[in-house]
Design a protein that fits this description.
This is Aminopeptidase P N-terminal domain-containing protein. Its cofactor is Mn(2+). Keywords: Hydrolase, Manganese, Metal-binding. Pfam families: AMP_N (PF05195), Peptidase_M24 (PF00557). It comes from Aegilops tauschii subsp. strangulata. The chain has about 500 residues and is of the alpha+beta class. It has 2 domains: about 180 residues, 3-Layer(aba) Sandwich (Creatine Amidinohydrolase, Chain A, domain 1), CATH 3.40.350; about 290 residues, Alpha-Beta Complex (Creatine Amidinohydrolase), CATH 3.90.230. The protein contains 15 helices and 18 strands. Strands 4-3-2-1-5-6 form a 6-stranded mixed beta sheet, with helices on both faces. Helix 1 crosses helix 2, helix 7 packs across helix 8 and helix 9 runs antiparallel to helix 10. It starts with 17 loop residues before the first helix and ends in a 5-residue tail after the last strand.
Length: about 500
């Protein structure tokens, strides 16, 4: 198997256009806030204020890990350095950055500090000041634009994936300002749910780089390697080609039974001949994520049992994508994936009985306990999955969904069906008299050490359907010597 020689990475957006992405995001936020305030009969005044991320040391040491900007701040300003504040005037639309003021000693350790005009030009904002001037500048900004009493819209709200809360900005002298803690978070989060064309170009580039890196791992994998070497192969290819230094999340390089561990990340196992490999890795480009999973046999040839499970997951993956369009409920796509996997397993006499009865008993969650997918953007798990009024389901499998929204044009969402043989879940099913009756336990024993298969692509919802942004080999390829792992096209 080899990749078509004509395939190549798409060109990255020019460096100078990066700031335009975040300027466009600010414009979207201002428009959304103005519409909200007008509908509520409130004056179109006030200033959005966000605090960027700070460098953190590792526990009690002085080691400082590579800094990554707080995601909401990155979305609006694209600033790569720590210690900044950012403001956007709702009335005028003007944006201001506040940079930390460095001491002369900082130049010794960190090089010559960049001057304020550099940040103004680099991030395409209207003005830049130092952080210690923040209160004075904001008071002047309010006074110059006739805002009356200064009003600051601060970011405070819960991330429905982590349960954590964003921290509102604070600064010395803030008690002289009126603050609003409830308006900004849901509006800014909703802005992040749908992607602009410029954002989509960044996500596409991250997908192009990651797809090529996955193919490189497929080419290099062989029995006797370590899972960590597979991760290193991916990271090396992504960082050397088009500048994806970071991954969007902890790489999962799982082989054999490790592939059924949903949050596996140790990557310290040894690749054994004939095992399945599950590679869940995605590169990040200019803050924007990709999240791709490929599954295939480590020796390049599917056994019959491996082919059965892989085909079941691939059918679910492809059928979901074929049904995706605006207005479709994501929970229905999850159930469709479950149904296709159950149908495939029934065809092989791994499970028995009526598929409808299995769905009613939530049998699909035994094999696919994770949610089908999640919103993707500046974060691998982008926020906005459960806006106010949308409740998370409580049933097995469904409660793992990171969103149950209707699909909207402009969303980017991952499609990741899977079929895992997890001892803990199989044990629970066997102990349930009703669920147990659906299983051919003799066949199940043949798959207990199998591990799992997941296939994940990143999909953009268009006006009439969707577009798969991921370009990894998926289809199995017959060869004269048996089953070649995947067809490179």
């Amino acid at each position: 198997c080899k990749m078509n020689e004509s395939s190549s990475l798409s060109l990255a957006p020019p460096g100078e256009s990066m700031a335009e992405v975040h300027a466009g995001n600010r414009e979207r936020l201002v428009a959304a806030l103005r519409a909200h305030l007008s509908a509520a009969g409130r004056p179109l005044r006030g200033i959005v204020l966000l605090k960027g991320g700070e460098e953190q040391t590792r526990y009690c040491t002085d080691h400082v890990p590579l800094f990554r900007q707080e995601s909401y701040f990155a979305y609006l300003f694209g600033v790569r350095e720590p210690g900044f504040y950012g403001a956007v005037d709702i009335g005028s639309g003007q944006s201001i950055l506040f940079a930390p003021r460095f001491s002369p000693d900082d130049a010794i350790w960190n090089g010559k500090p960049k001057k304020l005009p550099y940040f103004k030009d680099m991030y395409k904002v209207d003005s830049v000041f130092y952080v210690d001037e923040l209160a004075q500048v904001l008071r002047c900004e309010c006074s110059e634009h006739g805002h009356g009493e200064p009003l600051l819209f601060l970011l405070y709200g819960q991330n429905t994936d982590s349960g954590n809360y964003s921290r509102p900005a604070s600064f010395e002298g803030m008690d002289k300002f009126d603050t609003d803690l409830s308006t900004l978070h849901p509006i800014l989060t909703e802005c992040r749910v749908t992607k602009s064309d410029m954002e989509l170009a960044l996500i596409q580039h991250a997908n192009d780089v990651s797809s090529e890196a996955h193919v490189e791992v497929m080419r290099k994998i062989k029995p006797g390697m370590t899972e960590n070497q597979l991760e290193s192969t991916f990271r090396c290819h992504a960082s050397m080609h088009e500048g994806c230094r970071r991954c969007s999340y902890t790489c999962v390089c799982a082989t054999g039974q490790n592939s059924s561990i949903l949050h596996y990340g140790q990557n310290d196992g040894t690749v054994n001949d004939g095992d399945m490999a599950l590679m869940d890795m995605g590169a990040e480009y200019n803050f924007y994520a990709s999240d791709i999973t490929c599954s295939y046999p480590t020796n390049g040839k599917f056994t019959r049992n491996q082919a059965v499970v892989y085909n079941a997951v691939l059918k679910a993956h492809n059928d979901v994508i074929s049904h995706m369009r605006p207005g479709v409920k994501w929970i229905d796509m999850h159930k469709l994936a479950e149904r296709r996997i159950l149908e495939s397993l029934k065809e092989e006499d791994i499970i028995r009985g009526d598929i409808g009865d299995m769905m009613d008993r939530r049998l699909g969650a035994v094999f696919m306990p994770h949610g089908l997918g999640h919103l993707l953007g500046i974060d691998a798990h982008d926020p906005g999955g459960y806006p106010e009024g949308l409740e998370r389901p409580e049933e097995p499998g469904l409660r793992s969904l990171r969103t149950t929204r209707e699909l909207k044009q402009g969303m980017v969402i991952t499609v990741e069906p899977g079929c895992d043989f997890i001892d803990a879940l199989l044990g629970q099913a066997r102990d349930d008299p009703i669920c147990s009756s659906f299983f051919n336990w003799e066949k199940i024993e043949m798959y207990r050490s199998f591990g799992g298969v997941r296939i994940e692509s990143n999909v953009y919802v268009t006006a009439q359907g969707c577009k798969n942004l991921t370009n990894c080999p998926r289809e199995r390829n017959r060869s004269g010597n048996g089953w070649c792992a995947l067809a490179f096209t």
